[in-house]
Design brief:
Blueprint lengths: L6 H12 L9 E3 L4 H16 L3 E4 L5 E5 L8 E7 L2 E5 L5 H17 L7 E6 L12 H7 L4 H6 L8 H7 L16 E9 L4 H4 L5 E6 L1 E10 L3 E2 L11 H17 L7 E3 L3 E4 L5 E2 L2 E10 L2 H22 L2 E9 L3 E2 L2 H14 L4 E5 L4 H5 L5 E6 L15 H18 L2
Helix pairs in contact: 1-3, 1-12, 3-12, 8-9, 10-12
The protein binds zinc ion (ZN).
The site of zinc ion (ZN) has 6 residues, from loops.
């Protein structure tokens, strides 16, 4: 079998998809279920149909594009990633795994290979938490990690529920039907940019993921007391933003205090109400994103944050409500998938690193229902979720080649 990746064609498709965006180039913004996202999905579905794949979409908008194998009833071998993008993001996050996965399938088709198990490209819906506050909604539902009822009620910033938004976008099926049976996939492999600097530093163009870090996120609301910036004297203040400022530093400290480089915590949203120059902030909403490769250590940091909240509540006479949005366990990648990827790298003489994924991906959830692995390629300086995110075409093509060979082996 002689496999050839059409590097130029793949790169042109990445550029074409990047042009379907709500941001000025080179930035990409594609928030789930916006007209732009729907246009990108339609574009993607057309590319899959052109490759002769059978396309279906489920009730949350996951797109499945299947190349039927000789034994179509046997569990499929899956690959894929996402095409939604946070505001002001880059071209490669998720997209490399979707268009790279499609090109891997087309390369196998061109080579004359005939799979025994079907090979399926999966474009996950709502990987980014931008709209509904929780990441990987599509794969959480596919794996049964999140119930259909809980998912349906999630709201966006405008107060619209997942159920309202998806139905308006034309996804009217029953969310209960999204969950896949355990035997649906024989194996799953996701190609993705590293979103960190290690591969570039090691001058190595491939990374085989051993484990995926455990993410958790919180939404915290701090209620104080507002008033006139001139009229309310300092001893009488219950300034919600000052309390939030203390809490944010306590969150940073909770991550630093574990002493482990793998513990990371971020407050990326801070909404101040009423947000006027001469008005004491009465209410502040923040989000907390905390991750670790070790679940117990991550949970310890979350307890430290809870302790800090109680101290700040007592000291500043504010109330602090914390809502846990998710606290997921880490995942180990499947040995057989890792071995397949490593064998393919070795056959070509491609050096690779074995590594931890500190970002989480749909693969974290698919790993609950199928043997799953991830293949990383470098991105410049580790930059991701920003417009200057960049992956070299030759690295993308190399990743697609190793992916194609692994899919072929797994589908025999
Ligand atoms: Zn991604």
């Amino acid at each position: 079998m002689k496999l050839e990746i059409d590097q130029r064609g793949l790169n042109a498709e990445i550029e074409a998809l990047a042009a379907i965006s709500d941001a000025e180039p080179p930035a990409v913004t594609r928030i789930v279920f916006t007209p732009t996202d729907l246009k990108a999905r339609a574009w993607m579905a057309t590319r899959c149909e052109e490759a002769g794949l059978a396309v279906r979409q489920d009730a949350i908008g996951n797109i499945f594009a299947r190349w039927n194998g000789a034994d179509p009833a046997a569990p499929a071998v899956g690959t894929g990633s996402h095409i939604d993008a946070i505001p002001n993001a880059g071209k490669y996050d998720g997209v490399v795994g979707v268009l790279g996965g499609l090109e891997a399938i087309r390369a196998l088709q061109r080579s004359g290979f005939r799979p025994k198990h079907s090979i399926e490209l999966l474009v996950f819906a709502t990987e980014e938490p931008t709209r509904f506050g929780i990441g990987c909604l599509g794969s959480r539902l596919l794996s049964g990690t999140l119930s259909a009822d809980a998912a349906a009620k999630l709201k966006d910033r405008d107060g619209e529920t997942v159920d309202e938004v998806r139905r308006r976008s034309g996804f009217n099926g029953d969310l209960q039907d999204v969950k896949l049976p355990k035997s649906y996939y024989k194996a799953f492999v996701e190609l993705h940019i590293e979103q960190g600097p290690l591969l570039e530093k090691a001058k190595t163009s491939l990374g085989i993921v051993k484990s995926i870090a455990a993410p958790a996120s919180l939404r915290i609301s701090i209620e104080g007391s507002g008033g006139h910036a001139g009229g309310v004297l300092m001893p009488d203040r219950k300034d919600a933003l000052c309390a939030a400022a203390e809490l944010i530093l306590a969150i940073e400290n909770a991550a630093r205090a574990t002493g482990a480089a793998d513990t990371v915590a971020t407050v990326g949203v801070c909404d101040v109400f009423p947000g006027a120059v001469n008005s004491i902030p009465s209410r502040v909403g923040i989000t907390v994103d905390i991750r670790d490769t070790d679940k117990a250590r991550r949970d310890g940091a979350m307890q430290a944050i809870e302790g800090a909240s109680q101290e700040i509540t007592a000291k500043r006479h504010v109330s602090i409500q914390s809502e846990l949005l998710n606290a997921d366990a880490p995942a180990d990648c499947a040995p057989e998938v890792r071995r397949g990827l490593a064998d393919s790298c070795r056959e070509h003489g491609f050096p690779f690193l074995e590594m931890v994924s500190r970002a989480y991906h749909d693969s974290l959830f698919i790993s609950r229902i199928a043997p799953t692995g991830m293949l990383f390629i470098p991105c410049r300086k580790g930059y991701s979720h920003r417009p200057d995110e960049y992956a070299a075409p030759e690295d993308i093509a190399r990743g697609a080649l190793v992916l194609a060979e692994s899919l072929a082996k797994l589908s025999e």
